[in-house]
Amino acid sequence: MTSNAKKVVIVGGGISGLTAAFRLVQLSAENPIEISVIEAGPRFGGVIQTKLVEQCLIECGPDSILTAKPWGVNLMKALGMESEIVETDASNRRAFIAGKDSLLPMPDGFRLIAPASIAALAASPCLSVGGKLRAVCEPFIPRHEQFSHGQLPEDYDESLTSFVTRRLGKEALDKLAQPLFSGIYTADPDTLSMRATMPQFLEFEAQYGSVIRGLKAASTKNGGTEAVRYSMFVAPKNGIGSLVDALLDELKRHKNISLETEKRVSQLGFLEPEKQWRVKLADGSVREADAVVLCLPAYGAARLLKETDSQLSDLLSSITYASSAVINFIFERKRVLHPLDGFGFVVPAELGKHVLAGSFSSVKFKGRAPEHLTVLRAFVGGALFPEIMELSDAKIRDLAFEELSFYLSITSPARGLPYREALVTRWVDSMPQYKVGHRNTVREIEKRVAGLKGAFICGAAYEGVGIPDCIRSANQAADAVNRCLNTALS
Questions:
Q1: pLDDT tens-digit map of 331-346
Q2: Other CB atoms within 10 A of residue 221 CB
Q3: Distance between CA 435 and CA 437 in Å, rounded?
Q4: Structure letter (DSSP) for residue 9
């Protein structure tokens, strides 16, 4: 390492931290930077974890990347992974909603909240006749009074429950919108912010006076209804974990980068005379840096910034988190009687089930399992059902298997277990909850962070929970670090 090089410490080695380091490497060709990535856990990657079990590719965390947000695909291309990008299986691009006794096909063209096609909704078995009539009346429901001028007010927000009930009725909320959003955000619909998660639906109402009319207009621009759904998800051929591996391989090529696991940062402070940050680790060692990037959950950043800015720490602490678990099962394909002619299903909370959603992993992407095996994933926990996280792994596994069996008609052999493998992965306090007012909270956080000298934050807590969102957030933080260091050098 070069003694006169600027020093940057990145705290957190998930996808955000690794991306921030990679971006800084790209930006520092002319002015070398010494970069330390410090991870408290035993491995890098955060919630991204891919395993190979019985020749089956197992995703313990996220399994796909949305191409509508280009930052994920752009990163893969920058890492030379373009030839490894695979699309979802075109022959199975649909999903199901769990009913009382069976899985029901999701209405064609349905967009999380509302249908792009009234005819498709009318043909769907997911809603009762009364529920369908209420939903198709949506174009005749007046705009919210605050949208009277055809524009969405800057600070307007409301919950998912409020918005969907107001526009499409309670049955559309309970049977469609709630389970679909829960599958993404593991959230409570009564508190989930529309402005922070799906602002385009608010824009549709403001601009067109109707969500359905807005969806039709957007669908026309995108060339059709299905095109903006399942075909927009991709993944590396060897799983999301290979993206983390590629980042690590690239970072290890540079001699000015230090990658450390099982190192917990215990204290962070700014040394005014030296204009540097003092990063103290739990083992007593100290690192000094010209800039620090906190790629942590909001509560982790809040802990480290408490002494520097208590108001910022309080704002960060106000972002709450939910816990969840992913259960991966490997079955002999002949044991699963359901045709698995889709990508998975979501479960309405009103049914009182334990499973939030199920994913047909080896169907979604081809080549993820031998032909005689199939991989199914179940998701439990979240903001609505936190109590399940108190159960043992064995109990969580058994409950998940019971409900998958109910909906997918899984038979058991005369002897032995009904599944070949079952892996339970817990993600404790891993999903930020974007509650009503979240966007305003983030703006206040950004203002206070801007007042710090050389400290930056990024990650899933602020502008989006998906992989592309984290990558964008990390790129923005790295760009800000680079500007900060260049200003100091000039």
A1: 999 999 999 999 999 9
A2: 8
A3: 6
A4: E
